[in-house]
Specification:
Layout (H helix, E strand, L loop, with lengths): L3 E7 L4 H9 L6 E8 L5 H8 L4 E3 L9 H14 L4 E4 L8 H6 L4 E5 L11 H7 L4 E8 L9 E8 L6 H24 L6 E3 L1
Parallel strand pairs: 1-2, 1-4, 2-3, 4-5, 7-8
Antiparallel strand pairs: 5-6, 6-7
Helix pairs in contact: 1-6, 5-6
Length: about 200
């Protein structure tokens, strides 16, 4: 079996990245080839390196609002790692259509809501404010539109009375760490049927 080479983009501590990397140990159709961050201080870079995964960073700040110039630099280590798939795991930069189109059908993202609800930020607070009885997370293929693209999996959690956004976020994160590795495992084997976790 030839393993799919998986590059993972992060911006922070990388908890979802770690769940992906750890899931690819042993009998898995994917192998991590790079963990790449827009923040050289991202804690996830150290954790990835400790697991023997190659890391790189391209600080977005010197580029200001010039997203094209930032993405041109980001592409250098990314393309050098020759990924078959790119996973966004808490990567907090909006990518341009030009960048996304290079990896069309080969880029996944996890988003902390039951898409198409609550695209963008502050999803947990928005679900509570709306009085939703359930909330969760979605893994989807990345397209040029923000938090759009075909849904590959969802996991649901109950919104409890008196929940704070932080409490709800913590329960959703537990599900994210289950859902994303399962979707990636199936995707590496060519299975794009949606994964639904209770």
């Amino acid at each position: 079996m030839s393993h799919k080479r998986v590059a993972i983009l992060i911006s922070g501590g990388g908890s979802n990245m770690l769940s992906l990397v750890d899931s690819m140990i042993g009998d898995h159709a994917g192998r991590p080839c790079l963990v790449l961050s827009n923040d050289p201080e991202a804690g996830g870079l150290t954790k990835a390196a400790e697991r023997g995964v190659k890391t790189a960073s391209v600080d977005h700040r010197p580029f200001g609002k010039d997203r094209a110039a930032f993405e041109a630099e980001l592409l250098k280590p990314l393309l050098a790692s020759q990924p078959d798939l790119v996973c966004l795991a808490g990567f907090m930069r909006v990518l341009t259509g030009d960048f996304v189109s290079r990896f069309q059908g080969r880029m996944l993202n996890i988003h902390p809501s039951l898409l198409p609800k609550y695209k963008g930020l502050n999803t947990h607070a928005r679900a509570i404010e709306a009085g939703d009885s359930e909330h969760g997370c979605t893994v989807h293929e990345v397209t040029a539109a923000l938090d759009d693209g075909p849904v590959l999996g969802q996991a649901r959690v109950e919104v409890k009375a008196g929940d704070t956004p932080e409490e709800l976020a913590a329960r959703v994160l537990v599900q994210e760490h289950k859902l994303y590795p399962e979707v990636l495992r199936r995707y590496c084997m060519g299975n794009k049927d949606p994964v639904l976790l209770p």
